[in-house]
Design brief:
Blueprint (H helix, E strand, L loop, with lengths): L2 H41 L13
């Protein structure tokens, strides 16, 4: 494999992973919604914390 093909392969991998990341983000925001995520976390027994409460 020459260096040219390695460059193309790396670019293809980065673009593919970027598209998958954006698809995952869209799924979380538009399908499950932030309110659904909060409800899921509360169902696990987790409660919402503010950034300041972590420093106490």
């Amino acid at each position: 494999m020459t260096n040219d093909y390695r460059d193309y392969a790396a670019t293809l991998l980065r673009v593919t992973l970027g598209v998958l990341f954006l698809a995952h983000l869209g799924l979380k925001i538009f399908v499950f919604t932030p309110a659904g995520f909060v409800a899921f976390c509360e169902g696990l027994g987790s409660r919402q914390q503010s950034p300041i409460s972590r420093w106490r």
